[in-house]
Amino acid sequence: MMKWVLMLFLGNVFVSQAATVNTSLYILRDSIHFDNGTALPYTTFNANNTFNATNARIVVNQGDQLDLWVVNFDSDPHEFRIQGETTTVTIPVGDSVQVLYDCNTPGVYIFHDPMNFPDNASAGLSGMLVVKNTSHAGFYWNVKEHQVGYNDSVFAGTSPNWMTYYPEHFTINGRSNPNINNDPDARVVGNVGDTIYIYIANTGQSVHSMHLHGYHATVTYYSKDASKVGWSKDSMPIYPSETMILELVPDIPGEYPVHDHNLIGTTGGSLYPQGMFTTLLIAP
Ligand SMILES: [Cu+2]
């Protein structure tokens, strides 16, 4: 297997505590399944050689260096880029590429396949790189929507018509209600007084507005508009290819709904409540 090395140096900040994080992403194609019986062909980045509709997530600490191998086990060539980088690497079928990334700036960055953008990224190849600067509890929402037929078109080599995009399925980390609450990385569970961070990436092509019942959360990072940092709200619009970090300090116990305020996002193939619908569970 021929190996290409690409080094992305993102500045020269030296952090003495920095660790090297060695990890790999395996590009695999299978299907994403929805509760109305629909299955769509889907390609994702996986943590090992087993397909999972949840894209593998990479979580590092500020100052770490990411030493990443991206392995293409799909039958089509792919590209790889981390959001904010201008460099794109190509990964031929059966090949792998090494990417070195200095994680100097805390935030959420979407790594994706930019080939024929947004086609390949929409058909599954978009995940989250989270650069943390806190040890507080974290939860992760990769929000995305899906339209029947679009992925088939992408995999057949034909770009779908994004002007007539009307998605029917909505997922967080590749799951829809009621299965989101079974994802311990997505379902927010904590105690009154905890400091909880929710790391969000919109890897879809529609705007989603996550509505937290019961609490306000404070925006600590917003890729689209830094002037919104510090805002405390219960509903946060997140635009396509944008990312956000929310800080939540629950003041009362309870179980409260969290859902896409764009209400089509709480359906799945016309079933309700499906889609982006979960709950927060806060103990006294
Ligand atoms: Cu609501």
Would you give an account of this structure?
There is one protein chain. This protein has a single domain, classed as Immunoglobulin-like (Sandwich). The chain is built from 2 helices and 21 strands. It starts with a strand and ends with a strand. Strand 6 (78-82) and strand 7 (89-91) form a beta hairpin. The protein is mainly β and 284 residues long. The structure holds copper (II) ion (CU). Copper (II) ion is lined by residues 211, 213, 259, 261.
Task: Describe the protein's topology.
Blueprint: E1 3-8, E2 20-33, E3 39-46, E4 58-61, E5 65-72, E6 78-82, E7 89-91, E8 96-102, E9 107-112, H1 119-122, E10 126-132, E11 137-146, H2 150-155, E12 169-172, E13 189-191, E14 196-202, E15 208-212, E16 217-222, E17 232-233, E18 235-238, E19 243-248, E20 254-260, E21 277-283
Parallel strand pairs: 1-8, 2-5, 4-10, 11-14, 13-21
Antiparallel strand pairs: 2-3, 5-8, 6-7, 6-9, 9-10, 11-12, 14-19, 15-18, 15-20, 16-17, 16-19, 20-21
This protein binds copper (II) ion (CU).
